[in-house]
């Protein structure tokens, strides 16, 4: 009935139905298989219909039909999320938005952009480059992820060392949103009105366009630095963000991870026992950085301007790409995400003492409420749910703030508490609770 109504309303809409089961399955899934907890929860869930919309009007047509017929609707960008954010738990329609991809405006004075939600982030940056501007924050999936999916489902990544996280005030200036109702509204929300839709997994509105600040485009230099001693590498990683050297990313890989990581063309493989610090640094740091690192035991192994090296960009060895590369070679591993308490070494040593080589350390420098901090995305050997629960409890006991990637709802993967504004936005923009059902705990518990 829904498919017939959609075709009647707009014959230009592209539909994928049960006659294309493999495509429907693909459009119903993402990268949640990083979590052995999530796989059984999501594996049999799929949409009955996927719809590709290319215009805001088409989004409104789909929202109206779902609103009238009370059909669940889950929005999908590129489907690169790690927590099954775009898996339709209640079936229904998956609305794929990669065709909604125009850069509508870039203000010459302020650099503020308005961009449609399905635009790939790398493609947006390509259009901004001739204007000397760039997006502030990007996931390591920047080449394949959409800007709407990043804001609705991501949190931070490259650039978080300078600009903090997506939900920090100033990183999202406004949204254009289609509501899910029999007669959908097209709203333009300011920064305050947009906040409850930021990182809400598309549970409280369909984002059709975003207003975002940009930053000056910098020809970032990619640097790979080797350390023999973990303590010295960790000390350098903790101290570097407090200098005046401008960095866009800093990742530290413990030796066993570095030994198995792929590297950009021309970068030597890591020697046995070599820990590696990966940096994206401004060109004007280069006069100081090598000697600053050498004084702390770091040896520059490779350097190349971003965008000009062959093979993998350094960016794709960081954040959850580290997990991707490791899992491609090693069965039976998953990961965790946490903000480490300071001093980091005490927490890491306590975790090492109890969990040994079941945890391999991968750290990322970030800015948290204005201060430089180290986040960790350790690789974790999977030993079952009880062991995971004990590890999470131990991390919390030590003062780490865990962002659990093995849970279904927005709240459980974040601060753990219900955000009343997110729930209120859902009541206002999705009163029948049809958007991405099952992902907002505050709505389920209301
Ligand atoms: P999707 O996966 O398609 O969607 C994500 C969520 O947003 C879903 O809940 C979906 O329903 C919702 N959504 C999508 N579009 C809209 C819309 N227009 N309106 C409303 N809701 C919408 N994440 C990070 O934050 N930082 C990283 O560095 C990072 N690195 C990663 C590395 C790897 C190898 C992988 C596999 C994942 C990584 N991720 C990271 C997770 C993910 O890639 C990013 O969050 C990415 O930005 C998601 O974009 P997407 O277009 O794929 O979104």
Summarize the structure.
30% of the residues lie in helices and 22% in strands. It has helices spanning 2-9, 21-27, 38-42, 56-69, 121-128, 147-153, 160-163, 191-194, 230-239, 255-260, 289-295, 319-329, 344-355, 385-397, 410-413, 420-429, 441-444; strands spanning 14-16, 49-52, 73-76, 93-96, 103-106, 113-116, 133-135, 174-178, 186-189, 206-212, 214-216, 221-227, 247-253, 275-281, 298-305, 333-335, 338-339, 359-360, 362-368, 371-376, 379-381, 401-402.
Output the keywords.
Uridine Diphospho-n-acetylenolpyruvylglucosamine Reductase, domain 3; alpha+beta; Uridine Diphospho-n-acetylenolpyruvylglucosamine Reductase, domain 2; 8-stranded antiparallel sheet; 5-stranded antiparallel sheet; 22 strands; 446 residues; binds flavin-adenine dinucleotide; Vanillyl-alcohol Oxidase, Chain A, domain 3
Overall description:
The chain is of the alpha+beta class. It folds into 3 domains: 2-96, 2-Layer Sandwich (Uridine Diphospho-n-acetylenolpyruvylglucosamine Reductase, domain 2), CATH 3.30.43; 103-216 and 418-431, Uridine Diphospho-n-acetylenolpyruvylglucosamine Reductase, domain 3; 221-402, 3-Layer(aba) Sandwich (Vanillyl-alcohol Oxidase, Chain A, domain 3), CATH 3.40.462.40. Helix content is 30%, strand content 22%. The chain has helices spanning 2-9, 21-27, 38-42, 56-69, 121-128, 147-153, 160-163, 191-194, 230-239, 255-260, 289-295, 319-329, 344-355, 385-397, 410-413, 420-429, 441-444, and strands spanning 14-16, 49-52, 73-76, 93-96, 103-106, 113-116, 133-135, 174-178, 186-189, 206-212, 214-216, 221-227, 247-253, 275-281, 298-305, 333-335, 338-339, 359-360, 362-368, 371-376, 379-381, 401-402. An 8-stranded antiparallel β-sheet has the order 15-12-14-13-19-20-17-22. A 5-stranded antiparallel β-sheet has the order 5-6-10-8-9. Strand 19 and strand 20 form a beta hairpin. It starts with a helix and ends with a helix. The model has no long low-confidence stretch (mean pLDDT 97). Bound molecules: flavin-adenine dinucleotide (FAD). Flavin-adenine dinucleotide (FAD) binds next to strand 3, helix 6, strand 10 and helix 12.
